[in-house]
Amino acid sequence: xxxxxxxxxxxxxxxxxxxxxxxxxxxxxxxxxxxxxxxxxxxxxxxxxxxxxxxxxxxxxxxxxxxxxxxxxxxxxxxxxxxxxxxxxxxxxxxxxxxxxxxxxxxxxxxxxxxxxxxxxxxxxxxxxxxxxxxxxxxxxxxxxxxxxxxxxxxxxxxxxxxxxxxxxxxxxxxxxxxxxxxxxxxxxxxxxxxxxxxxxxxxxxxxxxxxxxxxxxxxxxxxxxxxxxxxxxxxxxxxxxxxxxxxxxxxxxxxxxxxxxxxxxxxxxxxxxxxxxxxxxxxxxxxxxxxxxxxxxxx
Length: 300
What we know:
Helix content is 7%, strand content 55%. The protein has helices at 4-21, 190-193; strands spanning 37-43, 48-56, 60-65, 68-73, 77-84, 88-89, 92-93, 117-122, 126-132, 137-144, 155-158, 161-166, 170-181, 194-205, 209-220, 223-224, 229-239, 242-253, 256-268, 272-281, 291-299. Residues 1-24 have low confidence and may be disordered. It is mainly beta. The chain folds into two domains: 4-21 and 97-299, Beta Barrel (Porin), CATH 2.40.160; 31-93, SH3 type barrels (Roll). It is built from two helices and 21 strands. Strands 8, 9, 10, 11, 12, 13, 14, 15, 16, 17, 18, 19, 20 and 21 form a 14-stranded antiparallel β-sheet that branches.
């Protein structure tokens, strides 16, 4: 039986080279005359400056801050980012939502930028990584790590996603969750062990606050579901480090409506998102607050 450490190493070997590529703006490509943007400089001593770069020379960078102007040596600049002016609210920098491409379980239509991605963990037992191959296409892989069972019986899955429409206020993506058990041991029975979902999802709004509507067709083995599952979800950022979330699944079949409702909160950092939510079934007896959901994602 293979260990969890071996699985983590396999994922690192698969996605590690992509992670190391990274992506950040370069000083010589900045739009200095655009007053609708702000720049963020991170210096070698860890200092972060938020303002607008007004002048560049071969040796220095001059930046207009709220309290005045400052000039630093180019050799001191470790990283520079270019963001919309809305990222600064009442003089305070609101870092971008680090996890706008997903709700709780479901993806939104927002694409990952090329060279960026995230590592996620849900309920401790589902670990995954997703990476932006281009600005429109991302690819992910994950595995379940349930203790006490033969490791080869765990689920291994791929999560490709393609942004078909990437307009400012409307996004539309196609994607899939392609899972199978028995791949590790070589005992895959395609009629019994493969499962997943093929989906399309549309999102409107911004990466900070948006609404998503999706349709997904599940399959088990070689059999596809006759009716799609409808997903309606939303996230809204109400504070610098807090967003509210809801993700709801509805299936109507044979005149009967079934589904799952959820609500929760996402705690935000510059590179991390931690979700605490509660789930309830649409049918049957409800209980408060619901089944707990816990997950986190680290953005790179």
